[in-house]
Design a protein that fits this description.
Length: 127
């Protein structure tokens, strides 16, 4: 197996985020499709629901409440986890990523949204 380049460090794919207009229906589908655990209760005001691989080998699926499923950008995005978020944001920007012009960040957040050169959104999250 080839080693990862040193500049990548601990940056890793951890979560696949899926927009959902019906959180319960989406949770039922993805839990059954992947054999992942399903939250017992998803409240009407829950913004997110986390589905996890019981074997611990696959990425987490994070359902993200949406009022509609947008056509563009795609309703699925990647979350990249790292202990050195700011370093990787700068590195990814140098590789061609961009910041969306506007993004409605909550008051407290541990993530930064970027777009790849094709316009696909992804998040870099501090862990």
């Amino acid at each position: 197996m080839t080693e990862r380049p040193a500049e990548v460090g601990d940056l890793r794919l951890a979560t696949v985020c899926v927009n959902a207009t019906d959180m319960d229906r989406s949770a039922d589908f993805w839990s059954a499709a992947l054999g992942y655990g399903r939250p017992d209760k998803i409240a009407d005001d829950d913004q997110f629901a986390k589905l996890e691989d019981p074997a611990g080998t696959g990425p987490t699926v994070l359902l993200q409440r949406a009022t509609r499923i947008p056509g563009e950008p795609a309703p699925v995005h990647l979350d990249l986890y790292t202990s050195d978020r700011d370093h990787h944001i700068e590195r990814l920007l140098q590789l061609g990523a961009t910041h969306p012009e506007t993004w409605p960040y909550p008051d407290t957040h541990d993530f930064v949204v970027l777009r790849d050169p094709g316009g696909n959104e992804f998040c870099v999250i501090a862990v």
